[in-house]
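So, could you explain this one?
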Amino acid sequence: MAPNEEKDDDDVSSVDVDEEEHEVEEDEEAMNDLNNADIVTKYRCAGDIANAVLSALIELIKPGVRAVELCAQGDALVEEATAKVYNVKKDGKKVDKGSAFPTCVSVNNCCGHYSPLISEDDVTLAEGDVVKIDLGVHVDGYIGVVAHTHLCSAGDAPATGRKADVMMAAWTATELAHRMFKEGAKNTEITDMIGKVCGEPRRPALRLGAFARAVAVRRQEAWPCG
């Protein structure tokens, strides 16, 4: 470019955009750097709370209990637990924390994500129901998500027949996925192996839209809390 030649506006805009994208990438890398002990601690805190709430809900699964009551109890326990941690302001701002995914209680043929309004729920647990619980917790945007399948029973009766088969297949598939979570592994490879464990086509693995999700740090400005 000649000394007195002016840059085209489009060229300047392109440079600005490239610099902004580079800054965003560096910012995201810093927010997800697991060499940062503070980030790991927040992940662990979110995971510990999620596991504790899940354990409490499992104890409440009994015949006659409404699904919406369990959902409300789960959300309340998450809010109660997260209110006790990270109460010191960070750079003059409160640390955002709480529910990252609402408590869902899905029964039998409902495969997941059942979290109804109180006025719309008509699901009451019965003896022998297969109950799936899933929920998520975040601390400063770092998310811990858990899920569990439990047999509803007034006593200690074990699952039998097809119920036992599908619960065992889910457990085995989860154990397999844990062992395959290594650097370089592809989600399609894990999905294929889960299908084999489930015995396709006799017990096909469910396809719930996005089978494996990429979870970024939750940002309040992009996903505000209610």
Observations:
- The chain has five helices and three strands.
- The CA atoms of residues 101 and 118 lie 17 Å apart.
- The two ends are 53 Å apart (CA to CA).
- Residues 208-212, 219-226 have pLDDT under 50 and may be disordered.
